[in-house]
Amino acid sequence: MWGAFMSTIAIIVVATVYVALLAYYCELEKQENFKSATTLKVILSAYAAGVCVYAAILLNNYVFYIFALGLICAVPADFFLQYIKTDLKKYRFGILFFGLMHLCLIVSFFLIYPVTFYEFIIFAVFIAILLGFQILGKWEIGKEKTQLTVYTVLVVFMAAKAISLYIIAPSGFTLMVALGGLFFFISDLFLGIWAYSKSKFVFLALNRIIYFAGQLCLAFYLVERLS
Length: 227
Hints:
- This protein is mainly α.
- The protein is built from eight helices and no strands.
- It has one domain.
- Helix content is 85%, strand content 0%.
- The chain starts with a helix and ends with a helix.
């Protein structure tokens, strides 16, 4: 019981600090303060990764080490992706590191629970949704098309597997995983709308808020496992 209480306190503290930093980060993005926004974005990502690493060390299980490694990959990914519209080379590095993040998460999810038909059904639905947005929005994807295609398969399959974990074994643990995967998928939709069409800042803000909410959910998953 004491462990559960301390876990709850830890979640509240982590969430409070995270939300405060996220609000300030979004304001910096709105002001187009690139350097400060990029720095704070990396800090936010490292914060979530640090929580995961700390929890994984305490849990001392190779599955959670792989899970935490995924969040570590998100740190350089968040830095490089800041250059999505200004530096193609750095943007590609961002896609690479995010792809590695999702690959680590997929591996850890399958170690938690093997293959089921649920993830393939959800995968097909999510791909259809994504293609619908791409066609209707007339997204003009450039030279990074091949890399983005591979990345898209990874993020969609990661989200599908995360949600399937909750369907198969519903609990507070798997709910955090499912929400994390779903939020990553939705955040990428908003990023696509912002990046590949003439859209307003609101879509970038939604991308950031939902993405970091996904990171927080995954961090909470490991913290809850400590109780």
